[in-house]
Amino acid sequence: MHYSLTLALALGTVLAGQAQTVKPHSSAALLAMQVESGSPAPAPAQTYRLAGRVFDPQGNPLPGATLLVKGTNRVVSTDAAGNFTLDLPSRTPNTLVAGYGGCEDQALALGPNQLQLNVHLRPILADGLDQALRVGDFAPDFDLPTTAGTTFKLSEHRGHPVVLYFYPKDGSSGCTKEACSFRDQYEDFSALGAEVIGISSDSERSHRQFTAKYDLPFPLLSDNGGQLRKKYAVPRAALGLLPGRVTYVLDGEGRVRYVFNSLNEANEHVLNAKTILQGL
């Protein structure tokens, strides 16, 4: 009996000592243990940023040039100083297609994670022109049929500014957006003394339907066969799959005062043209 009591007391003392040495870990300690045990590190960034600048054939910084990521619908435009930035997939060879009105589209292969790119565009030598139209050049004269059944001859509209905007196709989403934007701000253009003229290769019938559907207050010209596009050196876009979207602002003497080329920034054609006219 005496020995049993002594053994029980000794065993209780041992168990009590063990209980004192086993303490619960705090959440911070558990987290530290997990990190030390080799938990996975955060995944690296999946994109990187490319920065660059686009220059015209004369070596001047070029605003409004477009850069398309080949194989995608991702497009950016250069700012007023010709600069651009673009986020691209990391560790992947990418190809950009750079373009501007009157210049050849250029496909540019990038190295993985390439951070800088300068682009020097080359002019298109269009029929009837020694070089692509530049600011300060006289716009070539032409005459084309209008939606009103008359003929528009550019040289007969001297004495006031003219906005010529080339667009791909009646009824497409971007072209509808652009036409309606010109329509909604048409009074502003009229107040600035400017005419707005839309030009595409669609038929006169298509133009009449497009005009009636969206109540367009300005004429659309039918450039059947795209001869005027060639004369004005308007490039194709989206790797040559679509006619380009280019706007020319002409002053009262018929000189080119502004050129803007962007397939996707339809509203920018309207806003930029109005800004230029306000400064004439």
UniProtKB/TrEMBL annotation:
Keyword Transit peptide listed: yes
InterPro entries: AhpC/TSA, CarboxyPept-like_regulatory, Peroxiredoxin_BCP/PrxQ, Thioredoxin-like_sf, Thioredoxin_domain
SUPFAM superfamilies found in the cross-reference section: Carboxypeptidase regulatory domain-like, Thioredoxin-like
Species assigned in the record: Hymenobacter nivis
Record-linked PROSITE patterns: THIOREDOXIN_2
Biological process according to GO: cell redox homeostasis; cellular response to oxidative stress
Catalytic activity, as annotated: a hydroperoxide + [thioredoxin]-dithiol = an alcohol + [thioredoxin]-disulfide + H2O
Compartment list: Thylakoid
Family per similarity comment: Belongs to the peroxiredoxin family. BCP/PrxQ subfamily.
Source domain of life: Bacteria
Name this polypeptide is given: thioredoxin-dependent peroxiredoxin
Domain annotation Thioredoxin: ranges: 133-280
Gene Ontology, cellular component aspect: cytoplasm; thylakoid
Entry GO MF terms: thioredoxin peroxidase activity
Role: Thiol-specific peroxidase that catalyzes the reduction of hydrogen peroxide and organic hydroperoxides to water and alcohols, respectively. Plays a role in cell protection against oxidative stress by detoxifying peroxides and as sensor of hydrogen peroxide-mediated signaling events.
Residues in the signal sequence: 1-19
Keywords: Antioxidant, Disulfide bond, Oxidoreductase, Peroxidase, Redox-active center, Signal, Thylakoid, Transit peptide
UniProt-listed Enzyme Commission number(s): 1.11.1.24
Pfam families cross-referenced by the UniProt entry: AhpC-TSA, CarbopepD_reg_2
